[in-house]
Write a structure and sequence with these properties.
Blueprint lengths: L4 H55 L3 H29 L4 H31 L5 H37 L20 H32 L3 H8 L1 H20 L2 H21 L4 H7 L2 H20 L11
Length: 319
């Protein structure tokens, strides 16, 4: 489609910018308007629509339509993650939540790993019949089928959650408290510092993975397949390590120490990749760059557990 690097990365921006604000309002809507079941199904449906629009844009060689599709996809993407966390909190309690979040993250990373390693062979297979933007559009439409599957799973999960509520005589994800937008002014300073850590950390991760394929090909001379393989290690390691790191965080309780180690190892790994020609597999695996990234994710979700159960206080951010 003759898209330059800036335009290509803009597709990531169109996904990310809506979530700067909409994640907050998505959580508010789940709490006050839709509820978990309807919210999860609605946001999963929005993701499916966004992916279809994105694929149609490629199929018709209309980049602006692809950008619209990514924007719509972004509206549902992270808000669905909020709904997933709300489901987890409604079904599990206490310190076991970190391990549950780790398992949840593992499954999402398995999907990302499969995407990195399957999409290119799929494109090559379709390219035997269709070429150019037509081939890209068909491949993206196949990906939309998995978004449809996700939507169906959200509906099934809603059915089982409703059935559990009827059997157990409980209200899904409700604590009896009234959630207000004004509550944000009472969040402790520690919360805002953790948020800054998240933003600063993710800025170093996701743009890297977005352009990592090209980076490994140009600097290390990898083939596209090998570049995809090493680039997908961030998700492969996450998939296997998340539950164990969640368990470790539960047992040690040293949240700040884990965050500090995650940031230090990430700086070391990025330094090796940027300033040396050490085998990138060594940087990505032996230095535990992305393994520490997972621990950071688990920790940042930790205080959310108590907040979702209505028991958050300033001490939860200082553990």
């Amino acid at each position: 489609m003759k898209v330059d690097t800036g335009s290509y990365m803009a597709l990531y921006s169109w996904y990310s910018w809506p979530n700067v604000i909409l994640c907050f309002f998505g959580g508010f809507l789940i709490d006050r308007v839709f509820g978990i079941r309807l919210g999860a199904s609605l946001f999963a449906g929005i993701i499916f629509v966004g992916q279809v629009v994105f694929a149609l844009g490629a199929l018709n060689n209309m980049f602006w339509l692809m950008a619209v599709g990514r924007f719509v996809f972004g509206i549902g993407g992270e808000s669905l993650a909020v709904a997933q966390n709300a489901y987890a909190v409604s079904w599990f309690m206490g310190k076991e939540l970190n391990m549950v979040f780790g398992l949840q993250l593992s499954f999402s990373r398995v999907g990302s790993t499969v995407n990195f390693n399957v999409m290119e062979p799929l494109y090559d297979a379709v390219n035997k019949t269709y070429t150019g933007y037509k081939c890209l559009g068909i491949v993206l439409m196949i990906a939309a089928a998995f978004c449809l599957f996700s939507f169906v799973c959200a509906l099934i999960l809603g059915f089982f959650d409703k059935r559990a509520n009827r059997i157990l005589h409980r209200k899904s994800g409700e604590t009896g408290e009234v959630v207000k937008l004004q509550d944000t002014k009472d969040f402790p300073l520690s919360f805002w510092l953790i948020s800054i850590v998240c933003v600063s950390y993710y800025v170093a991760i996701f743009p890297f993975t977005g352009l990592g394929n090209v980076f490994f090909q140009r600097k290390f001379g990898f083939t596209p397949a090998n570049a995809n393989a090493v680039n997908s290690l961030i998700y492969l390691i996450s998939a296997g390590a998340s539950p164990f790191l969640g368990f470790a965080v539960d047992k040690t309780g040293r949240n700040i120490v884990w965050v500090f180690l995650a940031v230090c190892f990430t700086v070391l790994s990025h330094g090796l990749l940027a300033f040396t020609f050490v085998n990138p597999y060594l940087s990505m695996v032996c230095i535990f760059h992305f393994l520490c990234y997972v621990s950071n994710r688990c920790i940042n979700e930790g205080p959310t557990n108590n907040a979702s159960n209505g028991s958050l206080d300033s001490n939860d951010w200082n553990k």
